[in-house]
Amino acid sequence: MVADKNKIAELQEMPIEEKLRALYELQQVHSEIDKINILRGELPLEVQDLEDDIAGLHTRINNLQDEVKQLNVSISGKKSEINTAQNLIKKYQEQQNNVRNNREFESLAKEIEFQTLEIELCEKRIREFTAQITVKNSTIDEARGNLENRELEVKTKKEELSDITADTEKEEKNLKDKAAEIEQRIEPRLITAYKRIRSNARNGLAVVTVQRDACGGCYANIPPQRQLDIRSRKKVIVCEYCGRILIDNTEN
Questions:
Q1: What residues contact residue 111 under an 8 Å CB cut-off, 6+ apart?
Q2: Pick from 181, 215, 239: which residue ends a domain?
């Protein structure tokens, strides 16, 4: 803890010119890393999107298959109800042969009619469930086709990304190691500010040079007196418009 405090105090006492030089050097290294990421392009995001699509398709297929299973269970239930109704009709018909009066016969006839309607309703439900199964199976087949295409596409993208990564992996590691080493020479407060500016900058530039009397990041004009202050390297100066850290062009 004491050693860390001493280290921070030492970095704080470093001349501004050295701080600016270290920040600019760090920016150059990070820009090289950015170039590697640009070379990879949108492949990592494309791979992630495809993997998300694949996961979604798997979930959709599983849900549809569960729904088909449930519909088949419902069909089996309706067939069982039909069988029960048919048995009841047979029973009532046999009872009609032994009735003692018209009232009993009519009562049994109503029961037979009711069970006949139940059978018709069950058969209608079975047709509806069967139609739903047909539609869902068609949707499953379509989803499986899309899944196959996505899996083939993600495989191709991953192979392409792997090839690019293999070509640049060593260089990127060396650059990251170099960036980490440079960061050790910069006080934490400046590193935090640098990273914040860099994360908000469209092109990842947190430290820029003055070019043709303008900010090298947003190209806003810089007054002559402010340019003199920048060239003096006595303090850290940021662009009034974009917030980037400004250094004079002789830092190149």
A1: 88, 92
A2: 181
The answer to whether residues 16 and 32 belong to one domain is yes
* Spatial separation of the C-alpha atoms in residues 82 and 87, rounded to whole Å: 9
**C-alpha span between 223 and 226 (Å, rounded):** 5
Structure-block tokens of residue 23: 């920040």
Residue type, 45: L
CA dihedral (200, 201, 204, 210) positive or negative: negative
Note the pLDDT tens digit of each residue in 113-159: 999 999 999 999 999 999 999 999 999 999 999 999 999 999 999 99
Which of 130, 135, 141, 138 lies closest to 72 in space, CA to CA? 130
Contacts with 189 (C-beta within 8 Å, 6 or more apart), sequence order: none
Instruction: Give the Cα separation of 192 and 82 in Å (integer).
Output: 75
| Cα gap 171→186, rounded to integer Å | 23
What does each of the 252 residues of the chain score in pLDDT, given as a tens digit?
544 555 565 666 678 889 999 999 999 999 999 988 887 778 888 999 999 999 999 999 999 999 999 999 999 999 999 999 999 999 999 999 888 889 999 999 999 999 999 999 999 999 999 999 999 999 999 999 999 999 999 999 999 888 888 888 888 899 999 999 999 999 899 999 999 999 988 889 999 999 889 999 999 999 999 999 989 988 889 999 999 999 987 544
Q: Which domain holds residue 214?
A: 2-39+183-251
Q: Are residues 82 and 126 in the same domain?
A: yes
Task: Look at residues 25, 14, 3, 11 and name the one whose alpha carbon lies nearest to residue 194.
Answer: 25
